[in-house]
Design brief:
CATH topology: Rossmann fold
Oligomer: single chain
Mean pLDDT: 94
Number of domains: 1
Strand order of the largest sheet: 3-2-1-4-5-6-7
Low-confidence stretches: none
Strand content: 5-15%
Structural class: alpha/beta
Largest sheet: 7 strands, parallel
Organism: Pseudarcicella hirudinis
InterPro entries: KR_dom, NAD(P)-bd_dom_sf, Sc_DH/Rdtase_CS, SDR, SDR_fam
Domain Ketoreductase: 6-188
Protein name: NADP-dependent 3-hydroxy acid dehydrogenase YdfG
Family: Belongs to the short-chain dehydrogenases/reductases (SDR) family.
CATH superfamily: NAD(P)-binding Rossmann-like Domain
Number of helices: 6
């Protein structure tokens, strides 16, 4: 009997949390398609991932803000590998400013990528995930339950994403599709123009989120952790 190789699609997978998830899954023998808006970044990331397991990574230029782009991405995964088992909606952006200074363009981009982009991802992948009784995982944030100063756009997008994820979890479990939202705190990534380094050793590492995704997809079919909050064990000054 031919062994079935599972397939995952990760938005925003060329760096940060998305890349960390891809690394973990590929090491475990899962094929992974990563997306991003930069052709160079996507190609470089896919090349690095294929060094872990040759032929197991696929880079796709895609924009989560456009439904047709997400549909084309899913179609390419199906054309290449014939199935889609796991969709990790990770693409995100952050604009942080007091409401007096937050621009309409910053607001729109934040909501379009962090929230509407996940809606489009669900709509594009639904039929494929029905076929495999798959898993849809959203990467939200502790900012989805904890508001903070200068966070109006980001909080709104992540509060919305947590509510959206929990609602579709109830909708899709009747189709045999699991849905979980992961809500990390401080992660050592390039998010918001940050340059990760030794100073970030106390933070959650991208591969730690990858391990959580790996653990989720190994859970018995009868069990669904629907919302997971993740924090650094010992933040600075504690």
């Amino acid at each position: 009997m031919t062994e079935i190789i599972k397939t995952a699609l990760i938005t925003g997978g060329s760096k940060g949390i998305g890349y960390g998830i891809a690394e973990v899954l590929i090491k475990e023998g899962i094929r992974v398609a990563i997306t991003g808006r930069s052709l160079q970044q996507v190609e470089e990331a896919a090349k690095a991932l294929n060094k872990i397991n040759e032929g197991f990574a696929l880079g796709i230029v895609s924009d989560v803000r456009v439904l047709s782009s997400q549909e084309e991405t899913v179609a390419k995964v199906l054309q290449t590998w014939g199935r889609l088992d796991y969709f990790i909606a990770n693409a995100g952006v952050g604009h942080f400013a007091p409401i007096q200074e937050l621009t309409p363009e910053q607001w729109t981009e934040t909501i379009d990528i962090n929230l509407t982009g996940v809606f489009f991802s669900v709509k594009a992948s639904l039929n494929a995930l029905k076929e495999t009784k798959g898993y849809f995982i959203t990467i939200s944030s502790l900012a989805g339950t904890n508001f903070f100063e200068k966070g109006a756009a980001y909080n709104a997008s992540k509060f919305g994403l947590v509510g959206f994820s929990q609602a579709i979890m109830l909708d899709l479990r009747t189709e045999g599709i699991k849905v979980t939202t992961i809500m990390p705190g401080s992660v050592a990534t390039y998010f918001n123009n940050h340059e990760p380094g030794e100073k970030d050793a106390w933070k959650i590492q991208p591969e730690d989120i990858g391990q959580i995704v790996s653990d989720l997809i190994k859970m018995p079919a009868r069990t669904l952790p629907s919302k997971i909050e993740v924090r650094p064990t010992i933040p600075p000054g504690k």
